[in-house]
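Lab notes, practical 5.
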Amino acid sequence: MALDNINTSLPPLLTHPDFEIAPDEPPYNPDIHLSPTEPEFVVLLDGYRHVPKAPKLDKPVASNGESQIAYTGPFRLLSDEGYQVLRKILQRELVHQQSNDRWPAFIRNAGYRSKWLQDFNRCPRVLEHLSRMTGDVNLVPTAFQNSYSHINIGYPTERNVDSWHCDSVPYVVILLACDMSQTVGGELQLIEREPKEAFRLIEEYKGKVPKDIIRPIDYLGSNSCVFMQGSQLAHRVTNIQSCTEPRITVVNSYMSTNPFTIECTRYDTFRKEVTADLEYAMHKTWRANAQMLDLAIGGHPWPTRDQIIDRLTMAINELTCCREQVVIQQPPIPIILSSTKTPVNVSPPVPSPSTSTPIPVASSSIPTTTTTSVNIPLNSSTPPIIQRSNGPINLTRTTSTISTPLLTQTQHDQHIQSINSRLLSSSMTMKSSLKLIDDTLTWCENGQLNNYLQDSDGFVVIGAIGREKVGKSTLLSLLGGNQFIDEDRLMIFPAASSNSHKITHGIDIYITNEQTILLDTQPLLSSQLHQQQILQSSNDYPHTQQQQQTSLTPHFWQQQIDPRAMYVDNILELQTLEIIAFILSVCHVVLIVEDQFADPYLYRLLQLADILRPILKRNTNEIIKPHSPHIVFILNKCNNYISPQERLLIKRSLVQMMMDTQFRIYSSLKQTNKIKIQTNLKHIVIDLKQKELNENLLIKLLQQTKLVDNNNNNNDDDDDDETNKEIDLTNDNDEDLDDKQINYDYVNAIFIPRRDFRDSHSSHWQSRFLGFSNADSIVRQLRQQLLAIDRPHIEQCQTQRAWLTHASRIWDLITKSSQWADFSRLLT
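Output from the prediction step:
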């Protein structure tokens, strides 16, 4: 049978409510955006021979019609105009970067956000061009739309950009979307062996496969491609040692139109994606449908009954496999059994996308209902029929010969609430921060916030306090998932800049997918807020507006005094103390962000706010002991070289200022991988010579650095380069702290270098901070440590919703406290 008779229809194009198509893209035009070229050679799986072109297949359709192609030489698909459009899309998509155990940085679901990428992946000209390279095996894009133009991103790090693996889809085209002329590392490598033999070698050599076994793949430069049968080749991308811009590749995935090829798609690879269940179901349905269509219109003689049964069995096996895979990955849902017979509800047909062929459905009587019912037949091997609508979920059995006790109405409602809560929470992701306390320091009854809260424990609350323009909002945005290279408008918490008067007012909140609650506060003792207070207290400030402002902020201490009898500085200090006391009362971790140097006045306010924290009572006689949050000192925007002695002095001063508090300032961040310091002695020497420091200071600095490096027990023994050493300043040899002799290595102090991440020159991706790792690495490790930090117990906050109620109560106690009113009188 000719290959042209195989099912060539494309899998349907899907939409998802969590993703919106970007409106600012030009329409895809293959006449403008494509300029395909041919590779100079093709490598075959048979002996890995280099040939001009893959041989054509001349086999029956029902046999294995896979291509003999292993990989190709470099070639081009996009024109220069098309490449420029792709680069703009990638710049926009960088806000969606993720990380997991396999990829340090990657982006998925671009195929749901970009119409241009959808058309590029499904373009008939691209499919025809790639099909010719395979030896005329017709290709279509994979049904997993979340992997349309999957984006891999490589930064300078010790981790491989991609580890050894075989792809979960048959064919991939890898497009290099960056300039790697100045990049060291980031090489695409493969092993020219069968997958089983390749992974045996990887295991035998413990990942360090000899170079004579590895085949490196070269690109022609930016906008060049490599096409390969990734499911049949073990390959990886090595780590990047240095680069002038991140290594970015775009991976398009394809499969054969032959539904009888060996299935290599692995659902487990995609199961964490919100779209994976339906995409996998559509993939298996596409194969089953193509297998049946081949029997009907594939050019065969009229099939016998046995042939029809065999082909039906083949299609049923595809769908059964799909159902079993999806069911295994899902948590069990409680089923309410009823002995009452109910009519079988037939699921209404789902309208097909405009790009797919309509599927004829037999007409049937579909009763109108406002509930979702699952009719479970007596035969347990038959999957239940699920009908979804807008109402609550009701699960019933059509018939039952066993009398089972019915659940009470209360238990039934609890089941429904639990299921609906899981369905809602699984699809809700915050797009930006929301107001928790507004600019008048009034609690916001934000009903939208409840949509993102879950009735689950295991969450962590992180708040940040600090002066104006020290980087609180930027740091929290990075902890929430943003990247340094994101534009200001894409940041979770809008950041202030040197040429902007925009600052945070009140307290903003953001909830991440990792159940982390981030609180961004207005700057403490801000000069801009100070100026606003002066305008409000001036004679030119309208009296009616003062009354309106007072009514919007009904704090008890404001009602007990005349605002004109108190200095503006004192009013601002009281508002600052309220915010600090609130953050200390509701957060597991408090980040004190400073601009390189510790501010003693800030720590005086911290201790004073701790004294004024509201006292909670379980009853009239039992007082709830205030919890003690972790305090992490963030020394941000550091510049030049900070010697170990200078770091020690800074930590010692922090400890002295916090000596009389009960906060957790030690050992909070040593539970996971330690934040390490990269010291480049060569650059330090050059820097010191440029500053014309004397020779004695230079020798002393080198001796100090060498001494710390020799005491580090965690250095890589294989790194003998004396000009690039890795120093670990944490001392884990002492498990317990001695009260008489403090180990300052355990102080929760993080030094983050100054980084102008809007700069576009060649040093954009290199840290200018000679004493430490680059800012990207430090923030990434800090985020990992905060997610794994020990959570101090906050009374009555077992769930996120309970925490919000508790936080509202705390703020109410602060604003109505007579203790604050007494303290305000001392300032008049």
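Observations recorded by the TA: The chain has 22 helices and 29 strands. The chain has three domains: 3-316, 331-350+369-429, 459-678+726-813.
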